[in-house]
Amino acid sequence: MSEISLSTSRIDLELKANNRKLSLDRFGLRDSAWSISPHSHLFSVYIDEKVYNPSRLAFNGLKIAPCPEGMKYYIASFEGPGFQIEHHIQTYADTALVEMWPVIRNSGGRGLHLTRLDSVSIEVPSAGCDLLSFESDWGQEFEPRQVPLQGRICLETRTGKSSKGQHPWFALSQNGNEILSGSVAWSGNWIMRFEPGEAGNQQISMGLNDWQFSKELQPNQAMDCPHGLLVLGHDLNEIAQQYARVGRKFWYPHNNLARRLPVEWNPWWSYEDIEIDAGVFRENVGSAHDLEMELCTLDAGWFGPSQAGTHWFDYRGDWDLVNAQRFPEGLLPLSDQVHAAGMSFGLWCEIEAVGSQARLTREAPDFMARRDGQFLGYACFGNPAVQEWAFQTLSRLTTEFKCDWLKLDFNLDPGAGCNRTDHGHGSGDGLYEHYRGYYQMLERFRREFPQVVLENCSSGGMRIDLAMLRNTHLTFLSDPDWPVHALQVFWGASSILAADACLRWSFSDWRGEHRPAQQNFNPHDPDLTRHQLDYYTRIAMLGIPGFSQKLPNLPAWVAGRIREHIQIYKEHLRPFISQADVYRLTGQPRRNGTGPRWCAFQYSLHQENQHLLFVFRLPGAEKEQVLRLQGLQPERTYSIAGFEGESMGKRTGKELMTSGILFATLEEQGSELLRIY
Fold this sequence. Notes:
single chain; 677 residues; alpha+beta; Beta-galactosidase, Chain A, domain 5; TIM Barrel; Immunoglobulin-like; 3 domains; 8-stranded parallel beta barrel
């Protein structure tokens, strides 16, 4: 018998090897009592209708794999009848975060039938535990659901998109103390099961959703399963900070423009595809330059045939089509104008989707994803030819129009995905192979165009996950952006994403007839006050800020105030957004009017002893609120000031963390932005 320690400075992670068997013997914080059931399984796979986990496989040893500094990478090898499994385990210095996934290889002479793949499988005590998760739909992202951990609970998505229906994240609290969080890093259908185990424990398994899934693994073929993550902490802030720190250092792609966190203008909600044209875009570019914005992104209105009665949505896939009626000289002159103004040029594209009238459906019928013969509306990236076509298409758009930024959208739900068998996958693994192919294409594009930022978007925030965020530089959080909704979404998104991975628009001026009732911002409203505009704009500055406004038409005072906020963001806030730990000082506000009606976020650069405080008073909030800061040095004296001459004196760290700061003068829809240094 031997003990194998995979521990970090924060966790004890112990495996036990005995008689060619391996079990997970301990996974817990070094300074707390959280524990798992002894001999929990690391993983389980279902092959040829039999269940295999480490207790039913021969353990062939553990090796250390090469990895970047600050990470440890282990591979445990197992052998079963006609197959081998390498279970990958990664730990990260100064965190209690563990990443695991099995790779299955057919080492026999016949095909294997795989039907279920649990990348993580553990047992935990369930007494006194509550399970927090986030449900999701368009305009309803990060809707919290908290229930006692008992009986059978299943969190999953079957829409073919990772956060349509449910976000791939959970947090399990133990008697209000330690937190165990988990996530599946996968952009398609995933599942997390919570089921009764032995001795009153609860078994947790998570990985690829087995609904409508199967894979025929041929001899010498291997399958890489989605990554499962487990994180331990004392509270939700500590959990969130670990996700963010590891994401910034090891997961998220980086380039110079992404690191810059550019302030964006996008015409979509103000003009949509109805009013946008070359003249409108040019005029707004001039105004964006005057406001000191740094990125102008041309959204979906650039694309499609020019003939009356046609709609671009039906022609997605024919990405050579530029609407000549709206853009008679093409897009390059617009890109040149943006660059001449010292800004970056972005372009929208829905590279996976294919419209019903697209020429591509006739010229490349083998590209089309179908289920039981029915066209699903997208090109299946399980077909290597589709990957090549998509890469060449994005390369051409980038080169021809000198793009610095691509907004990659996906406005459909693949469901169980493609089940045709004539273009690179089997009948049961089409969705799996689509996402594998999509990741490979994105990785190749980043290698060839390292200077271009890839923005993840999918009907707003319907595909937010840690696999997509390894292949794109940042994610768009939600289409609607009315204030309370935006705060609820950012509070939820910051549970798993760093602030600099989150693109958030300020309260937009929508032209659409079918806009949500709350999406009612009008910059020309004579009753609009400065404190309301500050409130709307500062919410966007919690991450990477964008604006969807008719910039040339803004009242002079509104434009001037937005410009002042942009200057503050660029000169003072960017280091906090890109590097700081985020503390949510209040609970999650709710778009339905419940939950806390004060919302505050503290951003901390601990090494520099610099802190930032965003405070928002929502409609219906009590008049006064005391906010207690976190993570300060108790004996240090801190100055408290705004960025426009405001001063709130000096307090010790101990006073700020125990007595807090009283806010008693903010109006509803009021805000404060303070630095503590």
